[in-house]
Amino acid sequence: LVLDRKPKAAATPMRAALDGVVAYKAGMTLAEAGRRTGLSDFAKLASNENLLGASPRVAAAVMAAVAEPQIYPDPYCETLRAAIGQRLGVSSERIVVSPGSEALIDYVFRAVLAPGDEILLSSPTFPAYDIFARCVEATIVDVPRLANFDLDVPAVAAAAAKGPKLLILCTPNNPTGNALSKEAVETVLAATPKTTLVFVDEAYREYFEAYDMLAVLEAWGGPWIAARTFSKAYGLAGMRVGYGIASSEDLIAYLDRLRPPFNVTAVSQAAALAAWDDREHLASTVALTLSERVRVEAALDEMGVEYTRSEANFVFLRTPAGPEATAMRLLHEGLIVRPTPVKGGWVRITVGRPADNDRLIAGLPAALVP
Ligand code: PMP
After folding, report:
1. Which of 101, 261, 276, 312 is least surrounded by Cβ atoms within 10 Å, i.e. has the fewest?
2. Which of 143, 137, 133 is nearest to 105 (CA)?
C-alpha cells in the first residue's frame, strides 16, 4: 500500500516538513475487505456515507451531463452556487464549491496559515485538520475535549482569546458525534478576536439543525467560513462536492486565487444540483437515519455498551475487545467499521440501511468480547 511507504525528504526533492506528516488513512475499501476475508457482500459503515443513497433525480442529471460534449466544467459552479445561495439567503459571491469539503479545508489552510501560524483545534477530531496544518508548517494548538468528548468550552475560549490565525469548530464532531450547543459557540466566539478566522466544519449538519449556525456567526461579526458537504446526508460521497459559506466575498476571492480553476467536474456539479433540489428525499433519508440511530443506540444500551451522545449519522462506542479486534470480527460478518486510535478503545460505526443495522446489532455482542 502506497500509504505504508516511508520515504525521507532528504533522499528526494520533497519538503522536509512532509516527513512529519502521516498520510490520511481512509476507511477500508470494499476491495480490501474482499481480499482480507474472501467475502463479497459488505456494508461499508466506516466513512459515514449515506447508504440509503442519493436522490433518484441524481442518476438522470448525471446521465444528461455525461451525454454533453465534455468541455471544461463551469469553473465558478455558478448554477450550483446560485441555488445554494438562494435557499440560504446568502449572496452566491460568498459561496465556494470544492471537490469535497476536505479540499475546502486545504484551500482555507493554505490561504490563512503561514509557517509558524497557530491553528486551534480540539482532539479527538477529524484528522484532516492536523494533516493539512502540518503540510503548511502551522503550529497546532490542541485543547483536548473533555472525558465525554464535549468541547472544553472555557479552555477553548481562553485559548481562542490569544488570537490564533485559525480556530476550528467541528460540529457535530467526527469521530465522537458530539454537537456544540448554540451557547457554546457563542461563548467561544465572544472570546475570539476578530483577527482570527473561525472555520466551522458542519459536514454532518443535516442531522443536527438545532439552531442557525450562520446567524450565530454573523452576530459575532468576525471573519468565518462554514464548510458543508454533499458527501454525507445528500449521499454523494463518490461525486466529491463540498461547499463553503464565508462571512464576506473577499474571503472567497482569496480562495479563488489558490483553488484549481476547474475543481469540480461537470457531472459532479449536475449531481449536486439535483440532490440539492430534492428536499423531500433529503428529509426522508435523514429522518430514517436518525430513527435507525436511536434503534442502534437502544441495542447498545441493552448490551451495556458505552457510547457517546451522537448528533450525526454514526455511533462512537467503546469496545472491551479493542478497536482493531472488534473491527476485524465485524469484517468477517460483512461489516466494515472504523477502529480509531482514541484512548480507551473506541470504534466509529456509520448508521446504515435497516438491514445493515440488523446485522450490526446481531454481530456486535461477539465482536465486543475481550
Ligand atoms: N469534515 C468532517 C468532519 C468529516 O467527517 C468529513 C468526512 N469524513 C469531511 C469533512 C470531508 O468530507 P468530504 O470531503 O467528503 O466533503
Report:
1. 261
2. 133
What confidence tens digit (pLDDT) does each residue in 319-351 have?
A: 999 999 999 999 999 999 999 999 999 999 999
End-to-end CA, the chain: 30
CA distance 106 to 101: 9
Rounded to an integer, what distance in angstroms lies between the CA atom of residue 199 and that of residue 194? 13
What is the C-alpha to C-alpha distance for residues 363 and 370, in angstroms, rounded to an integer? 15
Q: What is the DSSP letter of 33?
A: H
Q: Is the shortest distance between the CB of 229 and ligand 1 below 6 Å?
A: yes
Q: Which of 47, 126, 178, 208 to mutate to test the pocket of ligand 1 (most atoms within 8 A of CB)?
A: 126
Q: How many domains, the chain?
A: 2
pLDDT in tens, 105-157: 999 999 999 999 999 999 999 999 999 999 999 999 999 999 999 999 999 99
- Domain membership of residue 46 (yes or no) is no
Q: Is 126 in the pocket of ligand 1 (CB under 6 A)?
A: yes
Q: Are residues 117 and 238 in the same domain?
A: yes
The rounded Å distance from CA 101 to ligand 1 centre is 6
Q: Is the CB of 170 under 6 A from ligand 1?
A: yes
Which of these, 58, 30, 61, lies nearest to 45 by C-alpha position? 30
Q: Establish whether residue 102 lines the binding site of ligand 1, counting it when its CB lies within 6 angstroms of any ligand atom.
A: yes
Structural domain boundaries, residue 98: 57-277
Model pLDDT for residues 170-224, shown as the tens digit of each residue: 999 999 999 999 999 999 999 999 999 999 999 999 999 999 999 999 999 999 9
